[in-house]
Specification:
The chain has helices at 5-15, 24-31, 63-66, 71-80, 97-101, 124-128, 141-153; strands spanning 83-87, 134-138. It is mostly helical and 155 residues long. The protein has two domains: 5-76, no CATH class; 81-153, Alpha-Beta Plaits, CATH 3.30.70. It is globular, with a radius of gyration of 20 Å. The structure holds iron/sulfur cluster (2 copies). The site of one iron/sulfur cluster has 13 residues, from helix 5.
Length: 155
C-alpha cells in the first residue's frame, strides 16, 4: 500500500527485476509528474534493508525486445486520442451525483462545467451518471475524425 501509486509501482517493478523506465505507462506517469519514482526518495515500511526481490518471478520473453520501445511516442499517441468528460446539458437531470463523486471537486454544482485544470481524468463522473449525461469528448479534432472512420468500418 502507498499514498503514492507511482512510488508503489516503482518498488513493485524493482521487485520483479525490471526498471521503471522500461514500462511505457509508468514512463508516461513520470513524464507527467504524478508521483515519486526515484527509489532513493521512497521510504519502505517494514523490516527491509533494501527492496526485496521475487526469486521465482519470470519476466516475459518479449521483455528484452520491448526495452527498446520509445514511450515518448506512446505518450504522443495517447495524447492524440485523449478524451475528456463533458456534461451534456440536455441529458443532465441535475442529480449532482457527478459533482459529489468527483474526487477533486472539478465539477461546478450549478453549471456542471468541468474545470479541466483540476480534473484528473478518473472518469468517475462518466461512469456514475445513470442518465449518460457525462459524455466523453475527443480533445483533438482530428482524433475524433479518425475514431469515427475506424468505428464505421465495423458497423
Ligand atoms: S450525474 Fe449526470 S444527471 Fe446527475 S448532475 Fe451529473 S451529469 Fe447531471
Ligand atoms: S473525470 Fe474524475 S476528476 Fe474529472 S471531472 Fe470527472 S470525476 Fe472529476
Amino acid at each position: 500500500m502507498s499514498t503514492d501509486p507511482l512510488a508503489l509501482d516503482a518498488v513493485a517493478i524493482k521487485m520483479m527485476g525490471m526498471e521503471i523506465g522500461d514500462v511505457p505507462i509508468l514512463g508516461a506517469a513520470i513524464a507527467r509528474g504524478v508521483g515519486e519514482s526515484r527509489l532513493e526518495n521512497i521510504t519502505i515500511g517494514g523490516d527491509y534493508k533494501s527492496i526485496p526481490k521475487f526469486t521465482d518471478y519470470k519476466l516475459p520473453k518479449r521483455y528484452k525486445s520491448s526495452k527498446k520501445s520509445n514511450y515518448k511516442i506512446l505518450i504522443k499517441v495517447i495524447d492524440f486520442f485523449k478524451t475528456v468528460p463533458k456534461v451534456n446539458q440536455k441529458k443532465c437531470r441535475n442529480c449532482n451525483v457527478c459533482v459529489e463523486s468527483c474526487p477533486v471537486k472539478a465539477i461546478n454544482p450549478e453549471t456542471k462545467q468541468i474545470d479541466y485544470t483540476v480534473c484528473i481524468e478518473c472518469m468517475c463522473c462518466h461512469e456514475l451518471c445513470v442518465y449518460n449525461a457525462v459524455e466523453l469528448k475527443k480533445v483533438n479534432f482530428l482524433a475524433g475524425i479518425v475514431g469515427r472512420l475506424n468505428f464505421s468500418k465495423y458497423r
